């Protein structure tokens, strides 16, 4: 196959993201991807073992970074309150999604399916996500920061808040004139999230000044 | 085309729901649908004008009922509190989705796309949904039941809570052992929703006895 610039690989990934969104996974051929990326068809198979391999690669790439963003946010806040940890995790995930909104949407959409790939993703990345959030919530309930309540629906609620805007960006834009790609969107959204947190999760309200400091940092 | 039993039409719709979910819209041919429904290929075109027509029919059919469920819930509670209206709307939408979970998932998944069909759906059904929820929220804020807060993110939050379980049923099942098709699921979920409502929306908490009566009715 000879020497191939790493940008060819990137071009193939970019082309796949676009085409999977527009024509769907089943409606996109390897030939379409190669054509759009302006590379040889054989290259796609060589690098990714075909279309399914490409989809897997896109999912894994996104979700590795997704979990990393969550882990980093908690690690950076070692010793801080569970409330601050959870806020940081949610904000970092949103910022991460905002960096690659098309890829985020592709992966989040994929996860609404019931495929072998999704089952594999769930048994690895989604289990990690669940464990990470559960740990923060249990700590917060243990140290009297959070109100005691059943974990399952609470976890799902938090996860949905972190992903909804990037799964339905056009819906937010068309009906609510909210652009998820606008940097100010995440700040505004985090105010709403924190409002939810203060009302539904925290035992005692915190001083609003601390919130402002967090959101501006 | 002669006399065709209405069940043939139903069989085509059922087959399309299944195939669109498994193979995707682009990966499904009219021939696949006819084969699965055990009808003549020409029948699919005759009834629905092809695959795109079928998808539109499924979306419109689901969303007509979806909006109807919301409207009926509010009409039945004329003169009752905004809180009771909103609870009823959310519960009725969930019950409606539970009646046809595969179709619900298909339509909710479709709505995460940015297609011509979705833009048409948004300008009709989603605009109606938004108006209906907005009316309840404005009333509730006006009559001092609900806390004043920006409408856009609040509306999105409510909409997401109504749709999330049926967009990701396998996720809830695999990771949280929650079966959205179980009748008890909606009761449990509505307790969580009402918990959110009491904390984030209501100005004053209501007596919990009223909530129990509502959920058992």
Automatic annotation (TrEMBL), chains A, B:
GO MF annotations, alphabetized: DNA-binding transcription factor activity; transcription cis-regulatory region binding
Pfam families: TetR_N
Protein's UniProt keywords contain DNA-binding: yes
Domain of life (superkingdom): Bacteria
Keyword DNA-binding found: yes
Record's keyword terms, sorted: DNA-binding
UniProt DNA-binding residue ranges: 29-48
Residue intervals of the HTH tetR-type domain: 6-66
Listed name of the protein: Transcriptional regulator
Organism of origin: Halalkalibacterium halodurans
């Amino acid at each position: 196959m000879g020497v191939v610039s790493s940008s060819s690989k990137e071009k193939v990934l970019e082309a796949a993201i676009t085409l999977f969104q527009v024509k769907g996974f089943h409606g996109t051929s390897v030939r379409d991807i190669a054509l759009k990326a302006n590379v040889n068809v054989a290259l796609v198979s060589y690098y990714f073992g075909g279309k399914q391999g490409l989809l897997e690669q896109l999912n894994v790439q996104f979700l590795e970074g997704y979990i990393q963003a969550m882990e980093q946010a908690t690690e950076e806040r070692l010793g801080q309150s569970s409330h601050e940890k959870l806020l940081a995790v949610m904000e970092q995930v949103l910022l991460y999604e905002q960096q690659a909104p098309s890829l985020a949407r592709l992966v989040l959409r994929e996860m609404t399916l019931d495929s072998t790939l999704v089952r594999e993703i769930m048994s690895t990345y989604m289990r990690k996500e669940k464990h990470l959030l559960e740990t923060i919530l249990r700590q917060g309930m243990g140290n009297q920061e959070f109100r005691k309540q059943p974990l399952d629906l609470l976890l799902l609620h938090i996860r949905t808040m972190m992903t909804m805007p990037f799964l339905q960006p056009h819906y937010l834009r068309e009906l609510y004139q909210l652009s998820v790609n606008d940097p100010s969107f995440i700040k505004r959204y985090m105010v709403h999230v924190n409002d939810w947190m203060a009302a539904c999760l925290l035992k005692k309200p915190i001083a609003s000044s601390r919130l402002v400091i967090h959101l501006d940092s």
